[in-house]
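DM from R.C. (forwarded with permission)

"hey, sorry to bug you on a friday — could you get me a structure for this? deadline for the figure draft is monday and I only need the backbone to look sensible"
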Amino acid sequence: MVSTIVDSKRGVSFDEDSLLVERFLAGDNASFEELYARYYERVYALAYGILLTHDETQDAVQEIFTLVYRNLYRFDRRSRFGTWLFRISVNRSIQEGRKRKYVKRTVPLTEALDKSSAPVEPESLDPRIEVALISLSPQDRAIIALFYWEELSLNEIADFLGCNVNAAKTRLYRARERFRTAYDEGEDFL
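My reply, with the result:
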């Protein structure tokens, strides 16, 4: 009897992803298309939370899924497929953010919010939030996006970032502090 572990956020069992991976590795390209469809929105939201621009995010997502397609045989199944994919997504998005770190970003915060979250009234947003997010490094935006937008636990974030839970907790604390400082400094500009 095969046991299944259900991901309560997506309602998809671990075995379904594993089965799709196995079928793809056996030559069934439609299996990869299903994995792509299943994970596209979450990968996009995560990358957007780090990169903050639509064009950069589209490029990064395309590159992420190309990397996954080419390297799926390397997936060692010690973790869930989604965990492996999101770790690639975070790392690749941070790399893209570093390449473009000197490009000025101006993005409305409403675009950065995941579509599945509660609707936000544009006029109720504090412009200092946008200024503060833009000023953060891609690494800081990544951990904030994982914690607040993806609502992941510190254990899951540690898996994605390839560090232990205490390091993830410290990184989140420092990112929050840098955000708070940038937010407070935003008062001077508005």
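R.C.: lifesaver. Confidence is low (pLDDT under 50) at residues 1-5, 114-124.
me: no worries. The chain has one domain: 11-189.
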